[in-house]
# Entry
Amino acid sequence: MRAAPAPGTTASVHPPAAPLPAAPPRRAAPDLPDPQPAGRARQLAGVATMIGSGLSTQTGAAIGSLAFPVLGPVGVVAVRQYVAAVVLLAVGRPQLRSFTWWQWRPVLLLALVFGTMNLSLYSAIDRIGLGLAVTLEFLGPLAIALSAARRRVDVCAAVVAAAGVVTLMRPQPSADYAGMALGLLAAACWASYILLNRTVGQRVPGAQGSAAASGVSALMFLPVGVVLVLRHPPTAEAVGYAVAAGVLASAVPYLADMFTLRRVPAQAFGLFMSVNPVLAAVVGWIGLGQNLGLPEWASIGAIVAANSLSIVTRRT
# Structure
């Protein structure tokens, strides 16, 4: 942020050669707002947006998991993609015919990431639970933070957060390694999502890029929905859970993250999103009865502390 001149002072290149006649008295100008409170308000708005996005995502995932016995993870993800496409296409209103190939390339990649990220994450949730699945998924933005960090405090914070993640995913006799692999795939997709969303935002105006990607992703899952309806007609309750998951865990976070990613660096976004394992653990505990032990809560506390350290010490 550029330093503003001190109150009551003006900048001058050269003094006038001769005294100028006195200017007529003018009405006092109204006080201008202090830029610092405005800057803090923008920061708080960004923080609130990221927290709201994470809470919406984890709540939607928990609700969607209630439909697993009827729809399965693939069916829930298919409904999520349909809902997200309807919402984002209505909001973004992409002018698809005007897209160039230079614009379509990241949009198509983002569509592939949308589907793969949701499918791998929900499959991991089905096998290893919400808290552990989301914690493994967090390795994606953490990798972005580690690769882009420049300050020592950022590196230390990322290392502490990584230690917490490693503790949460420590091997146990009942460990589901297939579920962990799915969580790691979701992590790779989330890292790609962060980078691709920024690229799409730079090449396509407004929300058109994300809306188009969501529409393409929904088309990819259309055969899944057809097969599901023909083979095993879902119940209204299961469809309701999946639709709620689509709104809370797809449409809302996509729009919120698109807003945030265009205003904060990728590494700052990745470090701050470490709050997602915390939100997932709390939502899983309250909504799904998935209890955590002392080591898990200690690891989550380390992740929160690392994130807070990076945010508090970050220069504006």
